[in-house]
């Protein structure tokens, strides 16, 4: 019979084992401690196990022994994260997580067409160009989640903007419902079809007409070039129009929205057929600071419903998480990675919010 001592790890060999040096401690009784679990290296249950198998067994025992404490900490951590995120949403620092992407059979495409006039690259700095590209990406993202997506046509799509898309969104050429064309919109459509959207227009749009093509100026310029889009349309003999925001909100500043906000408001109107509800869904609270809803009761109701909905969703997610079985070490690692990504996303949203001009 072989000597059993050859198969059992000695005390000295365990001391010299680098991965365990930080978690093992030796006591005077000959027992060792591994993550709060005391054990005897010569215990019968370790007979015939390799060092690696012995460590794995101890790790499993440690994991099981700390189950209740770990679950309590995890539950508290989730509650804290939920409360922090809700507070940031209510303060307008970040936006609530949007709806998930809809499947094609869940969408009913609209006949309303939207052109993005990309002929303003010479007016923008490199940073503003990147912001414009990012806003166009968000328009596409909103389209994938909309019940009634609208065809997107990017006109005057030049080499500079193409380079940005290739760098930041390499799969953009496969986007469904999106066209990238080099020629200007004036060469693709008749003037009677076109309506250029501008906050400086004197004409207020009450409905979106399926027979019209609406133009959004794809530009981020921090209001340096006032009346740029409106003047361009007038020079070309094209009708202009603005969304009826002034009929529902008394803005503290000019009624200038980002490219993606204008597009998302249009998507929401197609869903609700209600401009007020569309504005409430899309315009961030931080952008409405100092502004006043003309229907104040509607504002209060909207805020209450929004808070209840956000709180209810977060609470439901929390209950679902708590009802799950105790996560494995691998699931715990995934949870930590997901948390890091969420923190980075929240941080980016806060930075964008602080940089955007009211």
TrEMBL record:
InterPro entries: MT_TRM10-typ, MT_TRM10-typ_sf, tRNA_m1G_MeTrfase_euk. Its EC number is 2.1.1.221. Residues 98-290 form the SAM-dependent MTase TRM10-type domain. GO terms for biological process: tRNA N1-guanine methylation. GO terms for cellular component: nucleus. Keywords: Methyltransferase, S-adenosyl-L-methionine, Transferase. It is an enzyme of class 2 (transferase). Residues 32-41, 60-74, 309-358 have a biased composition (Basic and acidic residues). GO terms for molecular function: tRNA (guanosine(9)-N1)-methyltransferase activity; tRNA binding. Coiled coil: none annotated. Residues 298-308 have a biased composition (Acidic residues). Residues 1-41, 60-108, 294-358 are annotated as: Disordered. It comes from the Eukaryota. Residues 7-29 have a biased composition (Polar residues). Signal peptide: none annotated. The keyword Hydrolase does not apply. It catalyses: guanosine(9) in tRNA + S-adenosyl-L-methionine = N(1)-methylguanosine(9) in tRNA + S-adenosyl-L-homocysteine + H(+). This is tRNA (guanine(9)-N1)-methyltransferase.
């Amino acid at each position: 019979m072989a000597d059993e001592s050859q198969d059992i790890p000695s005390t000295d060999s365990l001391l010299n084992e680098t991965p365990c040096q930080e978690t093992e401690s030796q006591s005077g009784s000959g027992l060792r401690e591994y993550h709060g679990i005391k054990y005897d290296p010569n215990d019968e249950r370790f007979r015939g196990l390799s060092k690696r198998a012995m460590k794995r067994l101890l790790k499993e025992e440690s994991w099981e022994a700390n189950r209740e404490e770990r679950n309590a900490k995890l539950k508290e951590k989730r509650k804290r994260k939920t409360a922090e995120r809700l507070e940031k949403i209510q303060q307008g620092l970040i936006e609530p997580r949007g709806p998930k992407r809809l499947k094609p059979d869940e969408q009913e495409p609209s006949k309303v067409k939207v052109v993005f006039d990309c002929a303003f690259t010479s007016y923008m700095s490199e940073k503003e160009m990147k912001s414009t590209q990012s806003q166009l990406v968000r328009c596409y993202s909103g389209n994938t989640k909309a019940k009634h997506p609208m065809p997107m046509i990017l006109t005057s799509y030049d080499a500079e903007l193409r380079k940005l898309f290739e760098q930041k969104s390499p799969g953009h050429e496969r986007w469904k419902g999106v066209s990238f064309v080099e020629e200007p919109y004036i060469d693709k459509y008749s003037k009677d079809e076109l309506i250029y959207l501008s906050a400086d227009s004197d004409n207020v749009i009450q409905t979106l007409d399926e027979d019209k093509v609406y133009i959004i100026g794809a530009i981020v310029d921090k209001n340096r070039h006032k009346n740029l889009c409106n003047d361009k349309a007038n020079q070309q003999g094209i009708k202009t129009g603005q969304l009826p925001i002034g009929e529902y909100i008394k803005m503290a500043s000019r009624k200038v929205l980002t490219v993606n906000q204008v597009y998302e408001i249009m998507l929401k109107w197609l869903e609700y057929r209600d401009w007020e509800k569309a504005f409430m869904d899309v315009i961030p609270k931080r952008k409405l600071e100092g502004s006043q809803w003309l229907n104040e009761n509607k504002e209060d109701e909207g805020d209450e419903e929004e808070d209840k909905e956000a709180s209810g969703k977060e609470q439901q997610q929390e209950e679902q998480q708590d009802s799950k079985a105790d996560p494995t070490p691998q699931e715990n690692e995934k949870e930590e990675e997901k948390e890091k990504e969420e923190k980075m996303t929240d941080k980016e949203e806060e930075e964008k919010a602080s940089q955007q001009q009211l």
